[in-house]
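hey all, quick one before standup. I had two proteins in the batch that finished overnight and I want to keep them in one place so we stop losing track of which output belongs to which input. First protein below, input sequence then structure tokens straight from the run.
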Amino acid sequence: MELKFILESLLFSAQKPLSTKELRDLLATTADAEEVDMAIKLLKKTKEDELVAALETLAKEHETAGRSYRLACVAGSWQFVTQPEFAPWLRALVGVKVRPSRLSQAALETLAIIAYRQPVTRAEVEQVRGVNVDGTMQTLLERGLVEQSGRAEVVGRPALYSSTAAFLQYFGLRSLDELPAADELRRIVVEKPPFPVTVEPGLATPAPQELPLADEKEITAATPELVPSPVAGETTVKESPVVPKES
């Protein structure tokens, strides 16, 4: 029995897309059963590249056959999907599901910057777009298209953001390698904040007591003074004159 037909039967009957790991696990589970013959037991040793090759062959055969459906890999998982031209009849059969509203142009632009430059901070996205992206980022996070993937090793340790598997599913991509070329977007220079101050290279940021203390006169000179405002109930800020440090 050919591997590709076994995979075809699994994907045809599955209620959700299956990754290569899930398919290999199914082969191993079947091979461990006592009543199966030796040929089935040998499939437990199937390597991932052999599995992918069988899936690719199966996808090409379905494409060549010109069927109403095809085998597709989206976000690293395989599934049978119908061809787009048959959508009207399928909508009549299953109805129209309530889907989230389409992304705005601002959301698409922000998402593109994150996808091509990830992981990226919110400030870096704003440098490229030239506008505030707080609301847009919140929308992308709520839709599950973007997620926090770590923190940048710079002052303040801002959050880093990357695209998710839902992003690949939304655009029907197998992986990020299938993103269209966008060399110009990648070449935009983004200024990064300085790295955190450390006592020694490679060490963590020092505690406040370990940092050098400023001169008391300098602190006094730089501290603004609060004075009553001529308008009742208000307060104004008066800047103290800068006093040069005595030598």
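OK second protein, same deal, sequence then tokens:
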Amino acid sequence: MDYLGVVLIVAAVAAAFVVIARNQAWKGRRARAENDSQLALAKRTAEAAVAGLIEALTRLAPVAEQDPVAQAEYQHADAARVRAVRCLHEATEPDELCLVTENLEEGRWTVARLAARAAGEPMPSRRPPCFFNPGHGPSARNIHWHGRNVPACTADGARIDAGADPYIRTVERGSRRVPYWEGGPAYAGWARGYYAPWQGSTLVADIVRQA
């Protein structure tokens, strides 16, 4: 092979490497942009859930001031809030928001106990969050809804019993708002964290199987 032939081959190989490198770089930028977009959407949803827990804690602060047992529960819930906020700030992938909602689930459960104590009611049993909106806090019972057996809070259970629609948590997907379980990969971690402590429980089997 003459010198010119070798040069042409080397040039062709080099050009091919440049094309491949540019293609990989473009794919990498596109993947990062998609990740950033999904993370921003999921973080907004998680921020709203954290704000809901903060509001509940603020409302129940007077109860904690009057009862040492309630004070300990309040501190437990507030510690869960602090962990949730830290995980929210540290998240770099949408899936990492499961750590946020795992802590929110813990905080909401403790808030439910504080609310029962404030009302002079019996302590509630530990149950998974309301399927329709995990931000509603622990469910009161399981109900049949559209062929599923799902946990529901007292308010949503009563609405369904009356023939009305439950208050479903919707999220952004494209130009529409959809139920969070139709939100796609952006919200998968956010939703999973709420029910992570309940994996294997029959109370959430239909959520895992059909969501």
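Flagging for whoever picks this up: The chain has a mean pLDDT of 86. The longest helix spans residues 3-66.
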